[in-house]
Amino acid sequence: MSILVVGSVAVDNIETPAGSRSRILGGACTYFATAASLYAQVRMVGVVGQDFPQEHVRFLQGRNIDLRGLQVVEGETFSWSGRYGDDLGDAETLDTRLNVFADFQPTLPEDYRRTPYVFLANIDPDLQLHVLSQIESPRLTALDSMNFWMGSKREALTRAMSLVDVVLLNEAEVIQYAGEPNLIAATQAILDLGPKALVVKRGRYGALLVTHGESIGERFFLTPAYPLARVVDPTGAGDTFAAGFMGYLAQTGDLTVGGLRRAVVHGTLVASFTVQDFSIDALRNLALADVVTRYDDFHLLTHYDDGPCPGQERLQRSIMDNQP
0.85 exceeded by the pTM? Predict the structure, then answer.
């Protein structure tokens, strides 16, 4: 099954405590396509300028990525420069140059419109709606967004979120959109718009999947981040999380709640590889077998006894004995 991704393609300049890099491959669409191509063919829709390095084009062509949707137009490629402090929590934006991305109008090749899995990366929600209007009978649609659109284009973003199956946002964005400081209460405000599921990206603290259900155990699935001794560059972690999530679903076709939960784990693990080097460098030689190995480790890390809690029967008897 193929995955369609629409978003930014960029050249980045990054500073972290581990060092700095200039003119490296970046952009949400790029990160997503590189990682998702481990699982399925990716159809990539974005725009670059004539200055976009050919080495980056050759890299993408060498993956399982269809580049017919990548527009090359006159002008300079979108560029972002950022710096991370010692805690690597949030980046300080030093410079943003939209360049050709400012006039991006995603138009899909005819066969792209029938792609079964669709991911709309963080772009103007009006453009997300434009893409959704071109899609024919998708099996699963998902989108990412950011705080800027919540303030400047809330109505369009609300409409876009109501039309997709899965929304992926970070914790601060969920709280901002809902206007509710309690995360659990805030998640319901987004599910009420119509999505089947909400994925809350929590960075170093893992991820939270929220679906419809009666009990807490049915509605919420919480996973920690994969423990790493060293993080080099967190740029693109959220985009590759989405790639692992969508890639697993596209490869398996399992859209049950159980499938969504396993997809969250795959997203967590793919992102854990991404942050171990600059740009997409940790993904260049990554194989799906490497993700599966880390998945097995993660299972051991998070597993506990499937049976009743030790002493559960004694606790139940005590409760019964003390009832009036």
Answer: yes
Enumerate helices (H) and strands (E) in the chain, giving the number of each.
12, 13
pLDDT digits (tens, 9 = 90+) for 180-229: 999 999 999 999 999 999 999 999 999 999 999 888 888 999 999 999 99
| Domains along the sequence of the chain with CATH | 3-307 (3.40.1190.20)
Sign of CA dihedral 149, 153, 158, 164: negative
User: Residues 6 or more apart from 259 whose CB is under 8 A from it?
Assistant: 248, 249, 252
Q: Using CA atoms, how far apart are residues 44 and 122, in angstroms rounded to an integer? A: 14
- DSSP for 88-120, written as a single string: -SSEEEEEEE-GGGGG------GGGGG-SEEEE
In this structure, the dihedral spanned by the alpha carbons of residues 189, 192, 195 and 199, taken in order and rounded to 10 degrees, is 30
Q: Could you give the 3-state DSSP secondary structure of residue 63? A: coil
3-state DSSP assignment of residue 214: coil
In this predicted model, what pLDDT tens digit does every residue of 70-100 receive, in sequence order? Answer: 999 999 999 999 999 998 888 899 999 999 9
Q: Which tokens in the block code for residue 220?
A: 């919420």
Q: How many CB atoms lie within 10 A of CB 18?
A: 16
Closest CA to 56 of 22, 11, 14: 11
C-alpha atoms less than 13 angstroms from C-alpha of 263 in its C-beta half-sphere: 27
Q: Which residue has the tokens 């990054």?
A: 14
Q: Return the ∠ at Cα 231 (arms to 229 and 237), rounded to 5°.
A: 130
Taking alpha carbons only, the member of 2, 1, 97 closest to residue 49 is: 97
Residues 41, 68: Cα–Cα separation, whole Å: 13
The number of angstroms, rounded, from the C-alpha of 96 to the middle of its chain's C-alpha atoms is 21
Question: How far apart are alpha carbons 112 and 22 in whole angstroms?
Answer: 33
